[in-house]
Each structure stands twice: as C-alpha cells, then as structure tokens.
Amino acid sequence: MISSVRGQVLSIGLDHAVVEVGGVGFAVQATPTTLAGLRRGEEASLATALVVREDSLTLFGFTDADARQLFGLLLSVSGIGPKLALATLAVLEPDKLRAALAEGNTAMLTQVPGIGRKGAERLIIELRDKVGALVTPGAVPASAGPDAELVRTQVTEALLGLGFPAKQAEQAVDAVLADTAGAETSVVLRRALTSLGRKR
C-alpha cells in the first residue's frame, strides 16, 4: 500500500497531478480542491490510497489522512467505486460529508452526480455510525464562508498550473466570483474551467 507521496509536482491536469518521487513520476488522481493547492515545480505531500483492479493500479491523493479515511469508508459501500468516492469528496468537503451522513441528509448527498436517493440512503445506513469515529475531539467548526481573496489566489494559481494565460485565468475567476460570492475553491475552479473551456 502506498499511503503517501512527497516530491516535486511535475504537472497538474484537470483530474490528476504527477508527483516525482525518487525519480519516478506518480500520476495521482485528486479532487479540484486538492489540485488547486498544488503548484507545478514545487514540492507537495499527499496522503494517498492505492486502488488495485485486475487491469489497473490507480493512486488517489488527498490533502490529509482524514479525507483518505473517508474515501476508504465510501469504497466499503456496495455500488461506490473509486471515481464516485472521489466525486463525492469533490462535491462535499469532509466535514459536510460527515455531517450529511450523521444527520441522514439525503438531499445533500444526492448533490453528487451518480448518487441517487437509494444510493444516498445506503450510504447513510452503512456509514452513519462509522463517520463519528473519524471526528477528531475539539475539532474547530468550519467558518461561515471561505475568504474570497484566498479562493481567488488558489483558483488563479491552479489555472496557471494547468497552462492558462494569467490574464485569461484572472478574468475567468473574477467573473465566477462576481456571480457566486462566498463559493468554495472547488466550486469556483469548476466554473472557471467550464467558462474557459467554452472560450477555447
């Protein structure tokens, strides 16, 4: 099991980054939020989970061990594969996901593409009692909303890492922030990428 990687970020794609470890480049699948925190040419450290299939070995990366544990729990549910588990963490931050499972909030869980009402109910039944064990004592509650300037900086740098020109990236991010004040990094990044994709 490869539980973590640390090394220079060689490249950043839409759904993965390549991290060089000991001369070997590892392609690591990750959420937009995780990728937004990486910088090409700089060192990165990611908690990872290796998913083994008959025809593939896929490495998934996370900002911390907590997100990796949630990923593992999601995989333990029937019908949830690694891509859907990663999509769940992309749409719902770990704290929100944990709260949705603990409170039985199917509406929040069905926001994830690929998870319907029955799938959400199955997640709640199987994981409600397990997520409580992952809550760290004295955890600081999430703030009311993300800092707009920090989000702007993170998303702009992520777009630069993906190869977009600085001016084009800044304009796309500013346009998204103007429409979605208080949005989280992952939401802004997705919408900015959609906007830039239409212009290409």
TrEMBL record:
<feature type="domain" description="Helix-hairpin-helix DNA-binding motif class 1">
    <location>
        <begin position="107"/>
        <end position="126"/>
    </location>
</feature>
<dbReference type="InterPro" id="IPR036267">
    <property type="entry name" value="RuvA_C_sf"/>
</dbReference>
<keyword id="KW-0227">DNA damage</keyword>
<dbReference type="GO" id="GO:0005524">
    <property type="term" value="F:ATP binding"/>
</dbReference>
<dbReference type="InterPro" id="IPR012340">
    <property type="entry name" value="NA-bd_OB-fold"/>
</dbReference>
<dbReference type="GO" id="GO:0006310">
    <property type="term" value="P:DNA recombination"/>
</dbReference>
<dbReference type="GO" id="GO:0048476">
    <property type="term" value="C:Holliday junction resolvase complex"/>
</dbReference>
<dbReference type="Pfam" id="PF01330">
    <property type="entry name" value="RuvA_N"/>
</dbReference>
<dbReference type="InterPro" id="IPR010994">
    <property type="entry name" value="RuvA_2-like"/>
</dbReference>
<comment type="similarity">
    <text>Belongs to the RuvA family.</text>
</comment>
<dbReference type="InterPro" id="IPR000085">
    <property type="entry name" value="RuvA"/>
</dbReference>
<feature type="domain" description="Helix-hairpin-helix DNA-binding motif class 1">
    <location>
        <begin position="72"/>
        <end position="91"/>
    </location>
</feature>
<protein>
    <recommendedName>
        <fullName>Holliday junction branch migration complex subunit RuvA</fullName>
    </recommendedName>
</protein>
<dbReference type="Pfam" id="PF07499">
    <property type="entry name" value="RuvA_C"/>
</dbReference>
<comment type="subunit">
    <text>Homotetramer. Forms an RuvA(8)-RuvB(12)-Holliday junction (HJ) complex. HJ DNA is sandwiched between 2 RuvA tetramers; dsDNA enters through RuvA and exits via RuvB. An RuvB hexamer assembles on each DNA strand where it exits the tetramer. Each RuvB hexamer is contacted by two RuvA subunits (via domain III) on 2 adjacent RuvB subunits; this complex drives branch migration. In the full resolvosome a probable DNA-RuvA(4)-RuvB(12)-RuvC(2) complex forms which resolves the HJ.</text>
</comment>
<dbReference type="GO" id="GO:0000400">
    <property type="term" value="F:four-way junction DNA binding"/>
</dbReference>
<dbReference type="GO" id="GO:0005737">
    <property type="term" value="C:cytoplasm"/>
</dbReference>
<dbReference type="InterPro" id="IPR011114">
    <property type="entry name" value="RuvA_C"/>
</dbReference>
<feature type="region of interest" description="Domain III">
    <location>
        <begin position="144"/>
        <end position="200"/>
    </location>
</feature>
<keyword id="KW-0234">DNA repair</keyword>
<comment type="function">
    <text>The RuvA-RuvB-RuvC complex processes Holliday junction (HJ) DNA during genetic recombination and DNA repair, while the RuvA-RuvB complex plays an important role in the rescue of blocked DNA replication forks via replication fork reversal (RFR). RuvA specifically binds to HJ cruciform DNA, conferring on it an open structure. The RuvB hexamer acts as an ATP-dependent pump, pulling dsDNA into and through the RuvAB complex. HJ branch migration allows RuvC to scan DNA until it finds its consensus sequence, where it cleaves and resolves the cruciform DNA.</text>
</comment>
<dbReference type="GO" id="GO:0009379">
    <property type="term" value="C:Holliday junction helicase complex"/>
</dbReference>
<dbReference type="Pfam" id="PF14520">
    <property type="entry name" value="HHH_5"/>
</dbReference>
<dbReference type="InterPro" id="IPR013849">
    <property type="entry name" value="DNA_helicase_Holl-junc_RuvA_I"/>
</dbReference>
<dbReference type="GO" id="GO:0009378">
    <property type="term" value="F:four-way junction helicase activity"/>
</dbReference>
<dbReference type="InterPro" id="IPR003583">
    <property type="entry name" value="Hlx-hairpin-Hlx_DNA-bd_motif"/>
</dbReference>
<keyword id="KW-0963">Cytoplasm</keyword>
<keyword id="KW-0238">DNA-binding</keyword>
<keyword id="KW-0233">DNA recombination</keyword>
<dbReference type="GO" id="GO:0006281">
    <property type="term" value="P:DNA repair"/>
</dbReference>
